[in-house]
UniProtKB/TrEMBL annotation:
Organism the protein comes from: Methylacidiphilum fumariolicum (strain SolV)
Note accompanying the cofactor annotation: Binds 1 zinc ion per subunit.
Pfam families assigned to the protein according to its UniProt record, in alphabetical order: dCMP_cyt_deam_1
Biological process per Gene Ontology, one example term: tRNA wobble adenosine to inosine editing
Residue span(s) of domain CMP/dCMP-type deaminase: 68-179
The family this protein is said to belong to: Belongs to the cytidine and deoxycytidylate deaminase family. ADAT2 subfamily.
Protein name, UniProt field: tRNA-specific adenosine deaminase
Length: 226
């Protein structure tokens, strides 16, 4: 099976080609993550994929069957995020998977534990390590509803997770930003973003909407002035 290629420029889809040759996909991804200007990529590849030349854009290449797997396990992470939402926590969930089997799950527990390190990724990593009896989580994928922070990225590297899949980006604390591309034990950490991002974003919006309304409803304290 080939791969799907989607190229978006200025929020307009320029190309959506299904079952593209894997060799072509690898070449596109290689050049894209090396930050070669996308105009140059397109001059090289437009005879193969399309006649249009974007000025800038986002490129996503993924095997169709892998996309289905990612959607499924991100759904499990969303279930944990919903659980966090119901407990009054920022709704973030994480799941660690190897060979399509869940090894560990986690949700945000910062308020519950009064612990700034109690992030969903950290809990999922701990649970997976306990299940395996090994701190090395090689050949695993972590699915998380929001882009990991610097702390969680460090834990991901140290536990030797091979792939990170996240839903929505975190423009303030997120770690995966070009040109900051990272390596894991000498190998580039595989990163996929935007999986079921609409659902993650909607859950986050609901949480902060409720939080803002609760703050408005808080009664003013009676203050005695002596």
């Amino acid at each position: 099976m080939g791969s799907n290629i989607v190229v978006i420029t200025n929020k307009k889809i320029l190309i959506n080609r299904k079952n593209a040759p894997d060799l072509l996909v690898k070449e596109i991804v290689l050049y894209f993550w090396q930050k070669e200007p996308i105009e140059r990529i397109w001059r090289r590849l437009c005879p193969v994929v399309c006649a249009q030349e974007p000025t800038h854009g986002i490129l996503i290449a993924m095997k169709t069957d892998q996309l289905q797997v990612d959607n499924y396990f991100m759904g499990k992470a969303l279930e944990k995020a919903t659980e966090a939402f119901e407990k009054g926590e920022v709704p973030i969930g994480a799941v660690i998977v190897r060979d399509q089997k869940i090894l560990g799950m986690g949700r945000n527990r910062v308020e519950e534990c009064c612990d700034v390190t109690a992030h969903a990724e950290m809990e999922a990593i701990r649970n997976a390590q306990l299940l395996l009896g090994d701190w090395r989580l090689t050949a695993t994928t972590i699915y998380v509803t929001k882009e990991p922070c610097l702390m969680c990225y460090g834990a991901i590297l140290l536990s030797r997770i091979a792939r990170v899949v996240f839903g929505i980006e975190d423009p303030k604390k997120g770690i995966f930003r070009p040109p900051t591309f990272f390596f894991n034990g000498g190998k580039k950490l595989e990163i996929t973003s935007g999986i079921r991002s609409e659902e993650s974003l909607e859950l986050m919006k609901r949480f902060f909407f409720v939080l803002r309304n609760k703050k408005r409803e808080l009664p003013l304290c009676d203050i005695e002035i002596s």
